[in-house]
Design goal:
The protein is built from three helices and eleven strands. It is α+β, with helices and mostly antiparallel strands. A hairpin with a 2-residue loop joins strand 5 and strand 6. The N and C termini lie far apart (82 Å).
Length: 200
C-alpha cells in the first residue's frame, strides 16, 4: 500500500485579486512615506530655500533674498561650461534650460573691478583669493582648461564667481565672467554645517 506524503514546501500563490490588493496597499504606503519629502522639497522651493549638497560651499540650507549685499548667486551656466558641468555630472538634473541644476557660487568681482588671472590664482583689485588657481585636471583626472592668464576689467552686466571654499570648484577660473541674465537668484546662508573639503 503506497503512502501519499504532502509536500512540505507547498505554499499558496495569491490570486489576481489578492495580488492587485497587495500592490495597491504597497503603493499607498510608498506615497504616504514619500509625501513628506516631496512636500518639503516643494515647500522649500516655493519659500526660496535651497539645499546645497555640493562641495563648492558648506553643506546646508540657503535662502533666496532681494538684498543687494548677498554675494551668493544661483545661476545657469552657459555654452561649453554648461555642457562640461552636465556631462561630467558636476551638476545633477534640474531647472536650467539644458536640463541641469543651477550652480551656487559666491560673486567676487563686479563691474569696474580688476581681475588678474595667473598660475597662482585669481586676484580681485590686487587681493589674491584663496584656493582660486585653475587646475588642468579635475578630481577624476579629466582634462580642464583654466581661463587664459591676464588682467581683465569686469564689464557692465557681468560678474565673476569663485568659490574659495573648494580648490576644485568649477567656476569662473574656467569660464570667466557670467552674464547677469544667467543669474536666477541671490542667496544667503540659512543653516550650514561644518564641512571639510580636502585641498590637494
Amino acid at each position: 500500500m503506497a503512502l501519499r506524503l504532502s509536500n512540505p514546501l507547498k505554499f499558496k500563490i495569491p490570486g489576481s485579486y489578492e495580488l492587485h490588493h497587495r500592490l495597491r496597499r504597497a503603493a499607498l504606503w510608498a506615497c504616504l512615506l514619500g509625501s513628506p519629502f516631496f512636500l518639503g522639497l516643494i515647500a522649500g522651493w516655493v519659500f526660496g530655500i535651497r539645499v546645497n549638497l555640493t562641495p563648492s560651499l558648506p553643506l546646508g540650507f540657503y535662502v533666496t533674498t532681494h538684498s543687494s549685499n548677498a554675494k551668493l548667486v544661483e545661476f545657469c551656466p552657459q555654452g561649453n561650461a554648461a555642457y562640461i558641468s552636465l556631462t561630467r555630472q558636476y551638476r545633477t538634473a534640474g531647472a536650467c534650460p539644458d536640463g541641469g541644476a543651477p550652480l551656487l557660487k559666491p560673486g567676487v568681482a563686479f563691474p569696474g573691478d580688476e581681475v588678474k588671472v595667473s598660475a597662482n590664482g585669481i586676484r580681485v583689485n590686487g587681493q589674491l583669493l584663496p584656493n582660486s588657481a585653475g587646475r588642468f585636471r579635475d578630481h577624476l583626472q579629466r582634462p580642464l582648461d583654466p581661463w587664459p592668464y591676464g588682467t581683465y576689467k569686469v564689464e557692465p552686466g557681468t560678474v565673476w564667481v569663485i568659490s574659495s571654499f573648494n580648490s576644485y570648484s568649477f567656476d569662473s577660473r574656467y569660464y570667466g565672467a557670467i552674464p547677469d541674465s544667467a543669474i536666477r537668484h541671490h542667496l544667503r546662508p540659512l543653516w550650514t554645517f561644518a564641512t571639510e573639503v580636502p585641498q590637494q
